[in-house]
Design goal:
This is Glyoxalase. This protein is of the alpha/beta class. The chain has one domain: 2,3-Dihydroxybiphenyl 1,2-Dioxygenase, domain 1 (Roll), CATH 3.10.180.10. Strands 5-6-7-4-8-11-10-9 form an 8-stranded mixed β-sheet. It is globular, with a radius of gyration of 16 Å.
């Protein structure tokens, strides 16, 4: 099964973006930051989700991220699926902080978090076939709407595919966007580009 080592995000100010992820969100090797190389406007075609154990942790992380320079896009809110909020990080990436839990079971204790990379696809079934061919096993699949792949043991990032317009709507932004994704996924032994233009590359040595 394919192992995702990390996701690299391009930023105009890499040092500031790196500090945001480590200090506000407590992320380390899962998210790396590099210098911005290509222009990008509007929706970049993906979101990242930080899935935590309970609502208190969602609120605590969301507030910490907003105080550290993140911009609230959708405030934390309770829904049928749990609690979640969306913010834009200083480098421009969209982050959803979420839990499926309806109530708190204790104090705000981070515990084990799950990072999910959701790629916006024009054709979910084509994307699913492509990634299955690349060694990903399917964990969840809902027709042409959503696919989540099984994460290899120890992989810090889970991959999922969502219909592009639905993904933008879920994040609370317009689906329109041009330019680079400003995203690179580190996994495997060779570089390739998927059907929706997302770049994969071998993990950097060291």
């Amino acid at each position: 099964m394919t192992y995702i080592e990390s996701v690299t995000l391009d930023a105009e100010e890499p040092a500031a973006a790196r500090a945001f992820y480590t200090d506000a969100l407590g992320l380390d090797t899962q998210i790396r930051v590099g210098p911005a190389r290509e222009p990008s406007t509007g929706f970049r075609g993906y979101t990242l989700s930080l899935v935590v154990a309970q609502p208190a942790t969602v609120r605590g992380l969301f507030d910490a991220a907003a105080a550290a320079g993140g911009t609230a896009v959708k405030p934390v809110k309770k829904s049928l699926w749990g609690h979640s909020g969306v913010l834009r990080s200083p480098d421009g990436a969209l982050w959803k902080i979420a839990t499926s839990a309806k109530k708190d079971t204790g104090p705000d204790d981070r515990g084990e978090d799950k990072v999910v990379l959701l790629l916006g696809c024009d054709d979910i079934l084509a994307g699913k076939r492509f990634y299955v061919g690349r060694g990903f096993g399917v964990a969840k699949s809902f027709g042409r709407k959503y696919v989540e792949f099984a994460a290899a043991e120890g992989s810090p990032v889970t991959l999922a595919l969502y219909q592009r317009r639905a993904l933008a709507k879920d994040a609370g932004v317009s689906p329109e966007g041009t330019g680079a994704h400003r995203l690179a996924i580190a996994a495997g032994a060779e570089s390739f580009t998927d059907p929706d233009g997302f770049a994969w590359q071998p993990p950097a040595a060291g």
